[in-house]
Amino acid sequence: MEAKTLSRLAFGLLSLHIASLLPCAALADALDTTLTVRVTSVDAGVDSITVGDVFFLEFTVEDSVVDTNASVGAGKFPGLVTSFSMSASPSNNGSWTPSGAFDLAGSNFVNNAFGDSITFQLRGTGFPDGGSSLTFHDIDLGFNWPTDVTDSGLGDTFSQQLSPASFGVPPAILMLSVGIRFTDGFDFPTAFFMPVPSQVALTYRIEPVNLVVSGATFEGTVTTDGTLGSLAPANLVDWSVDVSGPLDFTITPANSALNSTVFSMVSASETEIRVAFPDGVFQFNLIGPFTTTVPECSSCFEGAVQLFRSDFERNIQGLDLHDEDDSDPSINDFQGPVVAENETSYLAATIVPEPSPRLLGIAAIAAIALLTRLRRRF
Which pTM does this prediction carry? Predict the structure, then answer.
């Protein structure tokens, strides 16, 4: 194949790849969006919402809805949002919850072609007050649009005014002066919020544990949902821990469980997972079947693998296997102390590094060089 043909082919593949990354308004009319926001400041009088409270928004935009405003500077789109839900994080310190009903037909959805912006004002009834004499007014969402909003007047669809991209977050950028608005009949005290960046799952490599008496070892990986700081059992989305020695098996979510009794005072950073000392616990409860010789026992307790346990004045790690259904092998092997008395935590796992862009670039160049040599040879 000639070099010119190869160049054209490469260019064509690159163009297709770039095109696949660009949103296209013609692909769908109903556009689903999820958004997590955190309260950053609260106006005086709003006492049922506190800074740091988190809310989850889900809504659907029907971008084939037509502009009903004849103005060429402001598009109005009744019924643009066909569904909208909002919930509060159970860990919020504030008591306010979005427990009312949104009135989508009575809400306001507009574009501003001069400011290249989009505004959603979600109204409703039955929502709790924000403070004394402060009734719920709306959820005020303003978005900056990264390209020109075009408005030729009556008859444009929402999609046409945002073309060539389709609505989503991103490319839309949530403004800073948005939030949950209340009213006393004159002013609109607000709990302002900002979007929380989407979390990326993080995988950590467990620090190997070697038990002296039984000869058992365990090592592997755990994956979190990307939460940094204090972890709850729900933040661990996957794990694979290989146990070898007297019995060889792998612990996974299919044959083990975490709960607040055996997983507490555990925290994550971008580089490691640590268990507090004292009182911290990181343990997998085994529910079977975890080997070919151990039958399934539904939710019965078949044993445990402890990376570290320091509650009730303990300072140990180890393995406890005891089948409650039959006479399968039983192993009980714990060792300690694991950490020195002057330490405050146990290092349970460290981050699995992602390939660096530089290494990926080197690998790509090497692959191209190899293909070139093969082409020359054949």
Answer: 0.52
pLDDT above 90 coverage of the chain, percent = 51
CA distance 123 to 346: 49
**Whether the Cβ atoms of residue 25 and residue 163 lie closer than 8 Å to each other:** yes
- Which has the closest alpha carbon to 236: 246, 226, 245? 226
130, 50 Cβ separation under 8 angstroms = no
- Give CA–CA dist 49/302, Å, rounded: 44
DSSP letter assigned to residue 197: P
Please write the tens of the pLDDT for every residue from 9-65: 443 433 334 333 334 333 446 889 988 898 999 999 999 999 989 899 999 999 999
- The answer to whether 53 and 89 have CB atoms below 8 angstroms apart is yes
The helix or strand, by DSSP H or E, that contains position 239, with its residue range, turns out to be strand 236-244
The dihedral formed by the CA atoms of 128, 130, 131 and 136, expressed in degrees to the nearest 10 = -70
The structural domains of the chain, with segments of one domain joined by +, span 24-195, 202-351
Higher pLDDT residue, 331 or 73? 73
Asked if 49 and 191 count as a contact pair (C-beta separation under 8 A), the reply is yes
| Under 8 Å between Cβ of 274 and 348 | yes
Cβ neighbours, 10 Å, residue 24? 13
> Is 50:191 a contact under the CB 8 Å cutoff?
no
Asked if residue 353 has a cis previous peptide bond (ω within 30° of 0), the answer is no
